[in-house]
Every structure is written in structure tokens, then in C-alpha cells.
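Hello everyone,

My group is preparing for a crystallization screen and wants a predicted model to guide construct design. The compound we'll soak is zinc ion. Before spending weeks at the bench, it would help to have a computed complex in hand. I've included the protein sequence and the ligand's SMILES below. Output in C-alpha cell form would be ideal because that's what our pipeline reads.
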Amino acid sequence: MASLKHRRTALERVEKFLSKIYFTDCNLWGRLFADRCAPVSLACFQTPRRIPYDEAIRQEFRPSKVGDSFGPTWETCWFKVELSIPSAWAGREVHFIWESDGEGMVWRDAQPVQGLTKEGEKTSYILTSSLKETEPHSLTLYVELACNGLFGAGKGSMIAPPDPDRRFTLSKAELVVFNRDVYELLVDLEILLDMAQLLGEENQRSFQALYAANQMVNMCDVTDPSTFPAARDLAAAIFSQRNGESQHTIHAVGHCHIDSAWLWPYEETIRKCARSWVTVVRLMECNPELTFACSQAQQFEWVRSWYPGLYTQIQDFVAKGQFIPVGGTWVEMDGNLPSGESMVRQFLQGQRFFQEQFGKICSEFWLPDTFGYSAQLPQLMRGCGIRRFLTQKLSWNLVNTFPHHTFFWEGIDGSRVLTHFPPGDSYGMQGRVEEMLKTVKNNKDKGRVNHSALLFGFGDGGGGPTQKMLDRMKRMNDIDGLPRVQISTPDQLFSVLEKESSRLCTWVGELFLELHNGTYTTQAQIKKGNRECERILHDVEVLSTLAVAQGGAFKYPASQLQRLWRLLLLNQFHDVLPGSCIQLVVEDALQYYAEIRRAGAQLQDEAVQSLCRELLQPKAGSTESTLVLNTLPWERTEVILRTGPAGTETLALVTVPSMGYAIVREPYVPPQPVAVRKQEDGSITMDNGVIAVCLDMMGRLTSLRLVGSKRESVPDGCYANQFALFDDVPLYWDAWDVMDYHLETRKPVTMLLKPLEITLAGGLRGSTRFSLQIGKGSTLTQEIILDATCPYLRFLTQVEWKEAHKFLKVEFPVQVRSTNATYEIQFGHLQRPTHWNTSWDWARFEVWAHKWLDLSEHGFGVALLNDCKYGASAHGNVLSLSLLRAPKSPDATADITHHQFTYAVMPHLGSFQDASVIQCAYNLNFPLHAVPVSSAQCLAWSAFSVSSPAVVLETVKQGGRQAQLSENRDSSGLHALLGEDKELSLPAWAGTCTRDHSSICIHVWVLQPQIISTALQQVRNACACRQSRSVAIAQVGLHPEVQNRMCLSYVSELPSALSPKG
Ligand SMILES: [Zn+2]
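Reply:
Good plan to model first. Here are the C-alpha cells for the complex, ready for your pipeline.
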């Protein structure tokens, strides 16, 4: 018979043959299931808590039925399901079908066995592939049903705040006979239909596939399975026609992106991991070729402690190389805001966990879904044994298309990592023909590499791969006209990319995401918690290490610190620290910060008590005084507030040596007292001999001068410290996005509530205060503080924030002209343009920085420092700090509360390096600690000093790999023990001068690498001469040829990262 002539009717005919909606009475899909049978009984009980299985099954279950609904949101419903398989089904494949809009977990014999989530296309638990008479026909299952969907329970839209009253319905619970032969034919036809539709009319293979599919429909009598094999043979004939040698190869890797918290709380994520991973384990049992890349040590740790049986099964599949831990980090963290040390700890905690649990560290960094990537990450990765990186988020760029999918990414120190973006621009593929074609077509590095990745499996809310995805790709292994598809591993992919890497391009600097720039500001309390807790843990580590070094009975609080670090690292997850999570998550996050603050304060107190115990003991004849501790590696002279015996607070000027302490000495005469004067026009001047300012009634700076240079920083007619309010209505992603057009809605805040008044008249400290009304219902009160000797002016700010869709910033127009501004990032800084020449420039209208940003021209500049803000911009000569936003989704209450934060402005001569802007920003963030003591007789004491201002001794802590270090120790002193990175000829070494088995690890970062060895020599000498119990110094990433870059060290804690192969 002649073939059909009408392409459209043929296509739609095949479509209808597979349709789940049309003609199911007579089409193939309608035959997928044969007989059905209801459970013998169904009973349930509901609980607001997420409880263990053992506790659940002891509860009283009440009769229930299909069609019942359960809720409200976040509750859990446990079902007891009694099943009896009809003996007439002998030899048949039997599934337990469960359909609900909540996420389910099937338990059998006290073990989790299958996740069932309709949204993730998982509604079947396979009881038997061929029912035998000897098998038990009656069984009891439990189903744990979470009253939330795969994406939480947003009211009206996915990212809307959760509906607290949502009900979840059980729509199906039954036993069915599954017709495997129908299923296989459906998958065949789907592939052929997709080829016919997607390859297009200009393509020969499109018609070959279409004719084959049409003929298969002709041949199939759906009521007679004996007609199926011949139809399948037709499909097989098409599938077995092979590609030529040059065809692109797609490496398909199973994956399941599980946000550690997002539209659901942390606690639910634990169950999401179990539901998703148990399903993967079931799939692996039937599909030995299935690979599954799984990131986030924290999630492994959750499953290890909550689902030990499942974890054992996972360990087996890890050993088989199928279940593949990837990423090397504790969680998939935000790529911008965590400090350098936090980033190091993400890797350190992660890699250590993978090493301990699975015997090896990860060789690739895996961060498919975060909102930009710091230019420091390549070096951090290399230092942690990682030289490969996978992500895809830059495909979300709103303005510019990133020009590569496979390339070398080079960080600020010159470290390079091989980077791959799966060209399908997704981490949740389904193994469809369409995705394979997109992967090949979209690939920006055609001709340079001929391999790419495809990550398949439901993600974000979990879910993971399905059998159908695998069955599609098995067929697509090598079909002429489609790219080759092989189930692969990240290692196989990167290994072949490495072989092809000679033609790859290099991208230098940050991977800036041109979207989601509101996440630098949203949920200010979380940002503040992060910055503060990073400081707290830094200080606890420094002080505890010094206490250990002093000898005595003090024990380094290693396990407490690990616990607190892990809480902090968890909150750095890429929907928590960015503020793009629901209110429940915010509450959890703030509680974790509270715990770090509480426990951190106690640990710090214990360390100080031990470190200064002689001074703290009351002695006869001694007088009350104040001991001041400095955890930063340079001497500081600052005004502090001290509390007297009666609770009275007084100011004092104190000089404290580097990483040490001193006693406040009387009298506290500053070289020049602060003078505060009210002028006739109501303005107020403040002057400390270093800087002089003039403030108008609204607290705005009309003048900011460096006294020594007479140079004015504020342009004529401009106001610095000008608040501005913007309309902030993005296109969709409310908490995430601030759009370019918000800049057009700028309104200066000028509604005065209380005019500027003097609150401290001068001496050691001068201060003034004023209040403004912002928008309709918010108020801002600011104290502007100038301390004796201090080179910057502080703005202590309180805001009662009650806005909706508004964005508050503070602006500092300055008399500086430069085409680039400098922003602090992790262990370094980078420049971004101050103009909007090209689309790449203006797409960065809102950027991020850590503790400071600076605009400098030759010999002069102005820096803006802050203690808990991240959003910033520098356009033209205006420096802006982003203060508060008010998005309504996914948390309707986001930021509607009281806020306190401090920023500071610092005019300076010379470069920002020469002017110690970096050090001043640290000082603002790491206040001196004042402790009342009873002894006035004490010499100032310093543990370490670093003579070069280019070196920042960032972290001093006890090494985590004590045994490893001490094994290599050399009693003569420091001893190089690590290898050399052959490829880049970087020295990598660590040393120890231990007398026992504990060690101290020092992370160092350097602005000018050539002086690193001198600096480290001094650090070393300092340790040695203090007879400290043990010290280890490690460093890596030193590029002698690169000026003005940094280096750091943590590798000594990851010994296996240090083999020459890295
Ligand atoms: Zn995510």
C-alpha cells in the first residue's frame, strides 16, 4: 500500500494513539493498565509533626477512602494500606498505584521503599514484575503523605507565599496489572513521533520516523498484544540505523536538584531527600547502567542520621560507582555573599565528609543553580582539590547571552578550572528528543568540543529520574539524525572534555548573573546574621587557638565549632542567604543564627577566661580596669565603650596589638579631640583632625574633607548620605529581582521627622542624630558618629520598615572620576565599570560587594564600608549602598520589621590599599572585645604580627587533620610536607613545629604575593618564640608573577587533595 501523503494528519493520528486524554477507549495508552483492584482496607491518622515510622505505626488509624482530603499545609498523613493481590494475576506485573497532590513515601517492612509524587511522574510502586504463586499475595504498606507538593504550597502561583489552609486529596490508591509490552511500544512511538515533529520537514529522518510510526499504528490491534512485536520491529529498524563518527555525544547523568530549603522548610527537605533517593536506589536495582550525581554533604548527613537503612543502600551504590557524590561542598551555597573563609569551609566540611563517608573527595564543583559566581571560586576550588566546575544558571541572563558552554574559567589569581554548562540550559531534563536536539543546537562551543552533559531527573523540589527517562535514552543511544546519548558520569564527561580542551576559550573574572540582583539585599536579617556569625566564629577560633597555645587545660572546642559552622554553612544555601525563601525558612534560619550567637558568645567567653585567666583573677590591691582583645592581625587604636562596675558606660581610647590584648590605660587623651559644633544655619560640623564633615538638618553631608589634604569629597550642590526610595516591582521573581527600570523611579527621602541634633559634644567621640520618614509608614533614625583618630565617619542606622515593593538605598556622590570602582569579594577584590557603555556594563546596574567598595582616582578616593550589607552600585561618581527591599513573594512579611545596620564613609589619599581601606573595613566588622578585669598591671600581648600591610592573616584555627600533620612533623621546626602542583607550578606546602599532636592552621591571604614568604617567616617566628604548643602554616595558590592578588591556605586539611594530580 502506498504511504500517506498528508503529513499533519499522520502526525496527529500517532499523537492520538498515545494520548492520555483522547480516545483512551480505543488507543494504545488506554491499554497501559489491565485489571484493577482496590485495597482491602485503607486507614489513616494525621499529625502536625514529621515523626519517625516507628512512632507513626503505633498511632490510632481511622478508616479512610480515596477522595478524602487532608491538611492543612505542612501536616503529615500516615496511611495504612492492606493489599491482597488476586491470584488470577499470576505471571503478571503488578503495581501499587498511589496518586495524590501531596508527596508520598511508601514504607514496607519498616523501611522506606519508594517515593510517590504525581508532579514528579512517580505514581507506581512495583510489587512484582511477574507474580509467582509462592509470593505473598497479602501485604501491608504504609504511606507517609506530606501535605505539600513538590514545590511547596504557593497560593495561586508557585512562588506566592504558601497557602496555610491547603487541602491535599488522595485521588487514587489501587492495585493494577501493568502491561509492559504496551509501555514499551508507547515509548517507541513517542520517540518516533518526536523525531518526526522536531527534525522538521527539511529532514529526511523526520519522514522516515513518521512513516514508521504511522505503519506501526496500522499494524497494532490494541486488543491483540500478539500484533505488538512486529510493530516494535519497525521502530527498532529506525533506531538501529547508526550515526557517523563525527556525531556529537551527550553524556546523560541522572540528577535531582533538591533545594535544601526554599518553598518548604529544612525539615521537609530531609524527607524530600529520602523520597527522591530511595526512588533512585529502586531504579538502580533494575538499571545497573543508571548513574546519579548527588551533591550537598548536608543532605547525605541528613539521610545518614534519619534513614540509616536507606543510607546503607546508597553507600553500596556509591561503591559501585552509580550513586556519585559531587560538588565537594556542604551545601550548594550562594556563589556571591559567603565570605572567603565561609567558602573555604563549604569545601572543607563537604570534602571531609565525602572523604570520611565514601573514601574520596569530589573532583568537580557542582553548583547548577545559584545566582552568580565569585571570581575567587576558581582558586578556592583548586585549593580544595577541584579543577572542574559544572553549572548552568548563566543561561538565565536577562541581557547578554553567555558565549560559552565549555571553557576555562580563570579567577582573580589566575587559577583556572575547566567549566561546563550543560547546553540544554537545565538541570532537570527528561530525556526527550527535544532536549537532545536543543543540547546540540545550543552548544556555543561547536567545533571546540564534541561532548556535552545532560542532567535528567525532576528537580528543585526533588523527584529525580524516572524509568521512562532511562527508557527513552536507551533507545536514543545512537540513532542516525540524533546526537549520541550515553548514560555517563561527571568524571567521564570531564575527562573527555579535558582531552578536547586545547581549543577552549578562557573567561576571566566573575560569572555575573544578569538577574536576581535583588538577592544581595532581600531578607536583611539573614544577611546580617551571616556577616555577624562569620565574625563570631572567626573570633572564637582565634581566641580558642590562642588559649590552646597558652597551654594549660583549655581544650579547643572542635566539635562545637564544627556544629556551629555547619549551621552557618547550611544557611548559606542558595535560597536562604539570598532571601528567596518562605517565611518558615526565614524563621529557621534566624533561629540558627541565634544559636550561633548564643553558643559562640559562650565559647568566646571560655576562651577569653582561659587566655587571660591570670588577669581576670581578682588580686589584692588591684584596681578595676578593662582588658581589650583584638582578633585582627594588626595593631588598632580605637575608641571603645566600657562598662564600669555599676553598669556605667564610659569611653576610652585604647591601642591593642595585633591578635592580642592590652589593658586600657589612663588618661585617654587623643592626639586631637573630636570637635562638634552647631552652625548658625542649623548645620553641624564634626572634625577629628583626620576628617571634617558638615551635615545639614537632614543628616546629609554637604562637605567631607580630609583635613590633611584639604580635599573636598562632596561635589558642589550635592548631598552625600542621601537616602533614596525606588519603586521595586520586578517582572516575576519578586524576592529575587530588581529590574533596571527601578532606577527611573528614584525619589530622594526628604521628609524630616527630627532635625539633626548633637548627641555627643566631642572629646573621644562626637555624635549627632536625626530622624526621617520614609515612604508612607517607615521611619529611619540615624546616629552619625566620629571617633578620635578614626579615618571614617560611621552611620549607625535604625529603620522601622513597613513598605511594600520599595527599595531603600543611600547614596554618596563623590568628587572622584574613574571608569572603574573596586568591590571587595572573597579574599580579594575586583573592578567593575562605573559606566553603562555596553550591554555587559549596564546589565550590572546592581552588583554585590562584601565589606567595602571604593572609587579612586590617582592619589585620592572615597570608600564606603558596611557591617552587614551586600548590594551596591557605583554609577558615574555616585556610590550607592542598597539597604532594604520589600518583596511579597515568597515571603509576604519579608523585611517588615526593625533593622539596625552601620555603614561608614572614608575619604583617603593614595590607593585604597595604601590607605588601609581593607583594614578599616575589617575593623568596622570586628569590634574590639572589652572585658572588665581587676588587674591594671599587664603588658600588651600579641600572638602574631605581620609586618606587611599587604598580608591579612585571615584565620587562625586548630587544624582539622592533626594526625596527618603531626606524622610529618620535623622536630627541628617547620617542615615542608606537601607536594607541588605540577601544572601551574604553584608551591603548596604546610609546616608544623609541633611538640604534640595538635596543630594550628593559619589561612593567609596576600595582596602582594612576593612578600608572602617574609610575612609567613614572621608568623612562624612569632609562633616559635611564643613556644606555642603547635603551629602549622599552610599556603597554596601563590603566583609570584601576579601582582595584587591573594592566596590562601586550607589544603593541609585535605591531604588527598594534594597529590600532584590534584
Ligand atoms: Zn536551587
